[in-house]
TrEMBL record:
The organism's place on the tree of life at top rank: Eukaryota
Binding site for K(+): D270, T272, T315, K318, G320
Cofactor section: Mg(2+)
Residue sites binding substrate per the record: N15, V16, D17, G43, K44, G45, A46, N47, E155, D276
Protein name in UniProt: Ribokinase
Keyword entries, A-Z: ATP-binding, Carbohydrate metabolism, Cytoplasm, Kinase, Magnesium, Metal-binding, Nucleotide-binding, Nucleus, Potassium, Transferase
The organism's taxonomic lineage, starting at the top: Eukaryota, Fungi, Dikarya, Ascomycota, Pezizomycotina
Binding site for ATP: N199, T238, L239, G240, G241, A242, G243, G275, D276, N309
Active site: D276 (proton acceptor)
Carbohydrate kinase PfkB domain sequence ranges: 8-327
Family stated for the protein in its record: Belongs to the carbohydrate kinase pfkB family.
CDD domains: ribokinase
Cellular compartment(s): Cytoplasm; Nucleus
């Protein structure tokens, strides 16, 4: 383990959102004047990396000063080499304090984009997602070996995710996986997995339980038990405005049921990136606990979830994706 600052690596997607707001959805063959056009940076990987960086740094003004950062945060992924989007994307991530030296700029590839049309009147959207370079992340071990925590999602090829997860488990790196977008996973993914974070629909798909059974009112212990019996140590099911259900392997072994922790009561503006903020905040708490765990203090999952709930509740009070992810001082002040 690293003896100085903990290190989090996020292996995942980087996408540019191209958002056009229109008075209505154009018909086939029609040219329609739009109301506005905006670009934004996204991708679950990049969003979670930004959350990790901001939630371990006091504020934007000190983002690039390494002395004020509590955690070193590395992004691993791929963007296009010669397209217009890659350079500004990396510059924005660096301004948030992220180490982007492991993001590959791939020759002849394009940065992933989501082309989004939003109909102004209804808010209804149409999205075309082009994964581009995200699908060409090299199928090889991408960790340096000195990381404390690896954060994964499923927007990069599964082969890359599984290979690096295995590598991390062998090196004693704590793995946090947010398997989104969810696809059924082989059982060996769960063996020795430290932290599984899923929302309601992901929990249903991965456990094979009917979606109607995954609600804040249901007893989610049997759902969590499915994952724990396959080898997961901490199962966290996020339930939107209803909060979070969690269960640990230790409590399961003692036949204790899991707990529901309510979300903060706030005025919701836009829930985009709430889940990504939650995952990033939780990963920061895992990383910060690593040094004390080495001296025998167990991981305090309740305070990790409380911190993540607080951070995600700030995200839902703002519009946008990465724009809505808070800095540490905002969570401390909330
Ligand atoms: P996802 O965006 O992945 O579907 P959720 O909707 O479950 O994830 O939200 C993730 C977390 O964001 C929740 O566990 C909670 O902490 C926070 N959150 C989401 N919606 C709200 C809300 N309406 N009020 C307060 N917090 C919220």
């Amino acid at each position: 383990m690293n003896t100085s600052k903990p290190i989090i690596a996020i292996l995942g997607s980087l996408n540019v959102d191209l958002v056009t707001r229109t008075p209505r959805i154009p018909a086939a063959g029609e040219t329609l004047e739009a109301l506005s056009f905006n670009t934004g940076h996204g991708g679950k990987g990049a969003n979670q990396a930004v959350a990790c960086a901001r939630l371990s740094r006091p504020s934007k003004s000190s983002a690039t000063s390494s002395s004020s950062a509590q955690v070193d945060v590395r992004m691993i992924g791929a963007i296009g080499k010669d397209d217009a989007f890659g350079g500004p994307f990396l510059a924005a991530l660096e301004a948030d304090g992220l180490d982007v030296t492991r993001v590959r700029r791939l020759e002849g590839q394009k940065t992933g984009v989501a082309v989004i049309t939003v109909e102004e009147r209804t808010g209804e959207n149409r999205i075309m997602f082009v994964p581009g370079a995200n699908h060409s992340v090299p199928r090889e071990p991408l960790l340096d070996g000195d990381e404390d925590v690896l954060v994964l999602q499923l927007e990069t090829p599964l082969e890359v995710v599984f290979l690096n997860m295995q590598h991390a488990k062998e090196k004693g790196v704590d793995v946090v996986i947010n398997p989104a977008p969810a696809v059924p996973l082989p059982d060996d993914v769960y063996a020795g997995l430290d932290h599984l974070i899923v929302n309601e629909s992901e929990a249903a798909l991965l456990s094979g339980k009917p979606a109607e059974e995954i609600t804040p009112e249901s007893d989610l212990s049997p759902v969590a038990a499915e994952f724990i019996e396959k080898g997961v140590k901490n199962v966290i099911i996020t339930l939107g405005g209803a909060g979070v259900f969690y269960q640990t392997a230790a409590r399961h072994e003692q036949s204790q049921s899991g707990s529901l922790i309510p979300a903060k009561k706030v005025k919701v503006v836009d829930t985009t990136a709430a889940g990504d903020t939650f995952v990033g905040a939780y990963a920061v708490a895992v990383a910060k606990s690593k040094a004390s765990r080495a001296t025998g203090t167990p991981f305090d999952i309740d305070s990790a979830i409380a911190f993540a709930n607080k951070a995600a509740a700030l995200t839902v009070q703002k519009n946008g994706a990465q724009d809505a992810i808070p800095w540490l001082h905002e969570v401390d002040d909330a």
